Amino acid sequence: MAGAAGPGTGPGAARGDGDDSLYPIAVLIDELRNEDVQLRLNSIKKLSTIALALGVERTRTELLPFLTDTIYDEDEVLLALAEQLGNFTGLVGGPDFAHCLLPPLESLATVEETVVRDKAVESLRQISQEHTPVALEAHFVPLVKRLASGDWFTSRTSACGLFSVCYPRASNAVKAEIRQHFRSLCSDDTPMVRRAAASKLGEFAKVLELDSVKSEIVPLFTNLASDEQDSVRLLAVEACVSIAQLLSQDDLEALVMPTLRQAAEDKSWRVRYMVADKFSELQKAVGPKITLNDLIPAFQNLLKDCEAEVRAAAAHKVKELCENLPTEGRETIIMNQILPFIKELVSDTNQHVKSALASVIMGLSTILGKENTIEHLLPLFLAQLKDECPEVRLNIISNLDCVNEVIGIRQLSQSLLPAIVELAEDAKWRVRLAIIEYMPLLAGQLGVEFFDEKLNSLCMAWLVDHVYAIREAATSNLMKLVQKFGTEWAQNTIVPKVLVMANDPNYLHRMTTLFCINALSEACGQEITTKQMLPIVLKMAGDQVANVRFNVAKSLQKIGPILDTDALQEEVKPVLQKLGQDEDMDVKYFAQEAISAVAQRLTKLDFPVKDNEEPSAPGADKNHFLRPRGPGEDTGKFVPLMSRHTESERLGWFPRRQ
Amino acid sequence: MPYKLKKEKEPPKLAKGTAKPSSSSKDGGGESTDEAQSQPQPQPQPQPQPQPPSSNKRPSNSTPPPTQLSKIKYSGGPQIVKKERRQSSSRFNLSKNRELQKLPALKDSPTQEREELFIQKLRQCCVLFDFVSDPLSDLKFKEVKRAGLNEMVEYITHSRDVVTEAIYPEAVTMFSVNLFRTLPPSSNPTGAEFDPEEDEPTLEAAWPHLQLVYEFFLRFLESPDFQPNIAKKYIDQKFVLALLDLFDSEDPRERDFLKTILHRIYGKFLGLRAYIRRQINHIFYRFIYETEHHNGIAELLEILGSIINGFALPLKEEHKMFLIRVLLPLHKVKSLSVYHPQLAYCVVQFLEKESSLTEPVIVGLLKFWPKTHSPKEVMFLNELEEILDVIEPSEFSKVMEPLFRQLAKCVSSPHFQVAERALYYWNNEYIMSLISDNAARVLPIMFPALYRNSKSHWNKTIHGLIYNALKLFMEMNQKLFDDCTQQYKAEKQKGRFRMKEREEMWQKIEELARLNPQYPMFRAPPPLPPVYSMETETPTAEDIQLLKRTVETEAVQMLKDIKKEKVLLRRKSELPQDVYTIKALEAHKRAEEFLTASQEAL
């Protein structure tokens, strides 16, 4: 190891630890002066190496002061530094010296950029645990106090995150001071600081003595919950969950509930949204009695809130709310107090509300049992299956398994089929994609007969969809179906249809055949692969389109492990060799790849050939004579179903030639 | 030496000198004693200063650039479709009794009853109607309110002595009841997903009434009878805070009114000024560090532009902090394009007032310089040029090294618009004169980038521009140019050597580290791949003569007038646009095209 004889000329070994003592820091200083950010970043990431080279003492006396004094760099570099320092305790000599790390982190905790500050706080929290109680009071607590009384809001914001880590281990006198500082941050003039304090209020409450919670935290909570800024008020709702867990029922009723009731009716929808969003946590925290008296009426209001955002958030919580009700009397409560509101939501004007409801409503059937489900819920399911918004229908279909357990899917199948067919033919490819993904699930629950009769043709139609993502999903869908229904079913229903496409005039469809074979061969086993699929693949090696030919090579590589050696030797190898002489560069390349994979297998090394790299490779843009597959019909945004973010991911497979 | 511009340095300074007092300002002295320093000034001189012909340093405009009403450029034609109306409103607190009686007209009533009738009408207008869930409800009463508002707008504009003391609380209440509301959730994606260039605004459904309420309030504030001393009982901090909350409205028409109203309030209520500035700062902090989403940043900056314009000299520390801690970090935000013209205006205003701020500003810009977002980089280059237009030569020499290192990177940008924008600097005579004065330090920084890209840049236009730049350098100082060429080659060799040296040094440190018993616990991260420069071509042994000849022939004269203003906002996709929104925005009339700084004091 030590003989890393790389720079053989190395004078380093001789002078290594002797004379030129400032050496590692000098290098760092020099590197940090470089223009290139990437270089500076790399140097900072190697900070631990430098510290190791210096040893603990010189790290403390030389490196850390340097870092504290001279670092002014881009946020990216500072972020890396803040992160590194969190793990530095060992490098400065262990817990006894952990406080040496505080000065650089303190200044990082005051910078403007939030990510740097947050990282510095995270590191400080980590290091605080390594302090001895004495060092904590001598070094860490003063740091927190300095930050808490800093001029600039950034340092006060950072301070908020540090109270809860030092409080439990401080002495009583110091504890009082810490509480005092926290109190003043809660009424800071800057909303940013109040928000930071509000967001840490719950965490801080948890480490306080119960008396202090009642006498100090509750008033702070009440104040923050009635702040002039709704962004502060909504954070108080979060704190409410933690505070409620700490108090007895009576205290809760007297100290917290008035504020919570008020929050549920706040004039800002953001606050009401937060209440709806945290509803399950609140419910657990306040216990069954208050839930029945207070939360259920509040929930009813949220379900009919004037803002769709709030209704949607509440609708999401319907199932959890019902589940968490005490079993005794649960059914009555749901039937009388919740269900009427749900019925309204099914015909809400906003599709997000409806689809939020659709994503959980099926879960109620297990809670309510068979009879209630059939009588009360089923009409709602059916209505949602006919909803104009595809997302609502999809959400119902994707949760069919819940109903299946209770009443069996047959009750629904009559309505299900039109809904599925409509989604399968939706003009938006993402809707089609979503329904394909549920096909295996549906197939399993509806049974093979129903499937063959009604859905099989849909699955085959997707194979020739004009959007690649759909064709791709359709092939993997076939594979899952074969896994479900078995090889015999595959041989009779799917394979022939797939193989017919090998003669399609459209090269994209011919390639789909190859992709299907890639996906199906393993599930179908050696016999079908050799007898039915292989001949077709081999025949396609003479295709006039280069994309098809190089995909033949890839397919042969893929199915190679399933074939027996005779077939490989006599049928596959000659074809690959011919492709290896192809005029097209890519065909040659993939043929060579396949040849070496096959050869490996033939020499009985018998590793399964590795080819995880995307069977989905579109490779469909041999631009020299084929039109690249354009974005087609469905560019632009389709907000309802997925975020734009997902869209860009989705489009990741776009023309990239292998 | 073609660069004689140095001699012409005096006139611009003078021009600047005259430009300043005009926009400068008096301090109202309302809020604190130290603001009382400046004396009232009669009338601002006519705003547009004739620019002395010889001036190279261009004084900036005297008014902030107005925010565009419609950010999206409508491309017309078939994609415009009528979508479901993009309107919303958070008006759930509908009044219970919405039956309004039509009152007699003010002008027909006896003078002594007018005040009472006016108040009655104002109270009537506190009734709120539903425009969203049932737009056709209460049509008759909506019309009563509309007509009433209209009449009052006329009345307050054209009659004298109608703003009596009793009117103030009523007018402010009417305004508050109608406008102060929690804004509805946006129909557009929030947070990082929001795309100001793509997403259409949601319009306020109750606009037919709100517009008149705004209109009335504005006329009320502007009425010659209006007395801030009486009004300040009602227009207080709470009022201003609620007003500022509305700036996040998605409706550009609403923000436009808010802007003018806040500008007036700032002008008239000296006691609120510090508070307003502080609250605006809080909005900015939240926008920069927490949400990155706020609809009214451009409007707020526009107001600030006019405020800064009126700052008294010397600038107070608080204002300088504002520049460094708020305005500069605003450059960081993703949606910079939405408010960049206003932001750049504010920055330049500061620098015109106090040139010693130039260094921190440029250092700040360089710190926030975009790494991957090319359109944003172009905006930075625009702003930097505006700054350089007003820079003092002494300030220039303080920042030029880091500055030109960045410009060298921009010139080498593979995005040709960035490279092109940077190279346009060579058309700016003032900048060229600054470079010429400091050639010995600037040239060695710029030369390698220019030389390298004169061959390797993929875009032909860039080649022409680069040769042009090289030619200018050559004419500037022949000798220096030759030296740079030589040095470039030498550096090239040394660069390799240095890279190797660095690797070796790290190797040694690594060895030292290994001696430490703790080494196994702190496995250093796997060695990062060395950073290679992107260059593909090795330096050819081309001699200077050849370069010079090429420069002569290739430095195309195409350049002089290419500096066209590019529209920075562009639509990325051809989404259908809502015809209703377009029409509504086109129909909106601004209360005032420009916010003047004339009345602004500190």
UniProtKB/TrEMBL annotation, chain A:
The keyword Repeat applies. Residues 288-369 form the Phosphatase PP2A regulatory subunit A/Splicing factor 3B subunit 1-like HEAT repeat domain. Residues 609-643 are annotated as: Disordered. GO terms for molecular function: protein phosphatase regulator activity. Residues 99-282 form the Phosphatase 2A Regulatory Subunit A helical domain. InterPro entries: 2AA_helical (IPR055231), ARM-like (IPR011989), ARM-type_fold (IPR016024), HEAT (IPR000357), HEAT_type_2 (IPR021133), PP2A/SF3B1-like_HEAT (IPR054573), PP2A_Regulatory_Subunit_A (IPR051023). GO terms for cellular component: cytosol; nucleus; protein phosphatase type 2A complex. Transmembrane segments: none annotated. HEAT repeats lie at residues 24-62, 101-139, 178-216, 217-255, 256-294, 295-332, 338-376, 377-415, 416-454, 494-532, 533-571, 572-607. It comes from the Eukaryota. Keywords: Repeat. Gene3D superfamilies: Leucine-rich Repeat Variant. The keyword Transport does not apply. Pfam families: HEAT, HEAT_2, PPP2R1A-like_HEAT, VPS15-like_hel. Belongs to the phosphatase 2A regulatory subunit A family. This is Serine/threonine-protein phosphatase 2A 65 kDa regulatory subunit A beta isoform isoform X1. The gene is LOC111153735.
TrEMBL record, chain B:
It is found in: Nucleus. Residues 1-13 have a biased composition (Basic and acidic residues). Its main location: nucleus. Keywords: Nucleus. One of its GO terms (biological process) is signal transduction. Residues 1-96 are annotated as: Disordered. It comes from the Eukaryota. It holds the Pfam family B56. Belongs to the phosphatase 2A regulatory subunit B56 family. The B regulatory subunit might modulate substrate selectivity and catalytic activity, and also might direct the localization of the catalytic enzyme to a particular subcellular compartment. This is Serine/threonine-protein phosphatase 2A 56 kDa regulatory subunit. It comes from Enhydra lutris kenyoni (northern sea otter).
